[in-house]
Amino acid sequence: MELKYLQTLKTILETGSFLGAARKLNYTQSTVTFQIQQLEQELSVKLFEKIGREMVLTQAGEDILP
Q: Confidence class of residue 35 from pLDDT cuts 50, 70 and 90?
């Protein structure tokens, strides 16, 4: 598991969006999306659910956070 993927997840939660995390980490938004997809595959859980235009952390996503 890549630690940068967990850092990206943490930054999404801090900024409240994938775009905010991308800006803060100097990544493209597609890089952030890719990293979260990779993390979801490695953990075998869905971390975010799209509701309207917003991405919301799932219960499984909350459960993996310390």
A: very high
Neighbours of 58 (CB within 10 A): 15
Which domain, by its residues, includes 46? Answer: 3-64
Q: How many domains does the chain have?
A: 1
What's the whole-number average pLDDT of the chain? 91
**pLDDT above 80 (res 1):** no
Please report, for the domain that includes residue 13, its CATH number. 1.10.10.10
* Length, in residues, of the chain: 66
Q: Are strands 48-51 and 54-57 parallel, antiparallel or unpaired?
A: antiparallel
Buried b (16+ CB within 10 A) or exposed e, 30-54: ebbbebbeebbeeeeeebbeeeeee
